[in-house]
Amino acid sequence: MEEEARKLLQEGIRKKLVSPGKGELSTFPNGTKVVFHYRTSLCDGTVLDDSRTMGGRNKPMELILGKKFKLAAWERVVITMKQGEIAEFTCDTKHTALYALVSQSLRNISVGKDPLEGQRHCCGIAQIHSHHSLGHKDLDKLQADPQPLVFTIELLEVLPPGSFQLDMWAMTDKEKLELVPHVHEEGNTLFKQGKIKEASEKYYNGIACLKNLQMKEHPGDETWIKMDQKITPLLLNYCQCLLLQGQYYEVIEHCSSLVFKYEDNVKAYYKRAKAHAAVWNETEARADFNKVLELDPSLEQSVSKELKAMEERIRSKQKEDKGRYKGLFDYNTRPATATTG
């Protein structure tokens, strides 16, 4: 441990042990997932970030070692820690120059924003030397005047490669492609078990992986089309989950995108018809149901059942509305109006 501390000191990092961990020090091969809470402070004690309070989420940081995280110092220091250990690392400016950008991304994530919001028009190094605002006064100040920082880290978990599912951002293209059939099957199993929300998340993850890969291809190219054909069944399954969760307008949006590209997709028309019917778009629903029958006459019984249910709902609503507004325009029931003479 003393030897490791000396190595860190030579690199411009001073370690102070706050609470020892348990067990043996991991070997931390590339692909290891480390989960830790962190607090980032200036040397005068001013706290910039704290994962326990950021965004009100109390969500720890997760890193996959060897994936070239923008703040290399964090990868360097965690490999000196045992699981459960808490330590302070004071890092020289050469290790903290990019922290303002990293912090901006982490703050965006904590409130559900795009992690790259505000960073899309120039690279990290360019932003350090520019007057581009990061949207936070403390980070703008740090970006203009980089300085040493103190990272207080509590190492919660060390997960060896292969013992966990990678987040999409940490996957290679090959890993993303291999993941899709697995999440598709997992989604189908969850759906059959009635776990609709969980199933929709699986389908969504599969769509996200394929969309990420598809963005690297030219629209209309053979590979792009193959990706789109893989996306379609996942998107239809996702729409079925949305229907069951009452997300009708999202179903209409997704199915409209499908029928725009695939005019003979019966399932897309059928799901969109049901969504239209659910939000009282009678004309649109009938048009879609007619298209379904045109493409697949064998679905006549199912379509008739859906149309009958829609008509009953419309009659019930009209009756309810009629009762609600009864007497509204009945002059005999209006209260007398005061007049002046």
Fold and architecture overview:
The chain contains 13 helices and six strands. The chain has 341 residues and is α+β, with helices and mostly antiparallel strands. Strands 1, 2, 3, 4, 5 and 6 form a six-stranded antiparallel sheet that branches. Helix 8 runs antiparallel to helix 9, helix 10 runs antiparallel to helix 11 and helix 11 runs antiparallel to helix 12. The N and C termini lie far apart (100 Å).
In brief:
It is built from 13 helices and 6 strands. The protein is an alpha+beta fold. Strands 1, 2, 3, 4, 5 and 6 form a 6-stranded antiparallel sheet that branches.
Keywords:
disordered C terminus, 51% helix, 341 residues
Largest sheet: 6 strands, antiparallel
Order of helix and strand elements from N to C terminus: HEEEEHEHHHHEHHHHHHH
Supply Rg: 29 Å
- Global outline: elongated
Q: How much of the polypeptide forms β-strand, as a percent range?
A: 5-15%
In terms of structural class, how would the helical and strand content be classed? alpha+beta
Share of helix, binned: 40-55%
- Termini Cα gap: 100 Å
Low-confidence stretches: 120-130, 336-341
Number of helices: 13
How many beta-strand segments? 6
Average residue pLDDT: 88
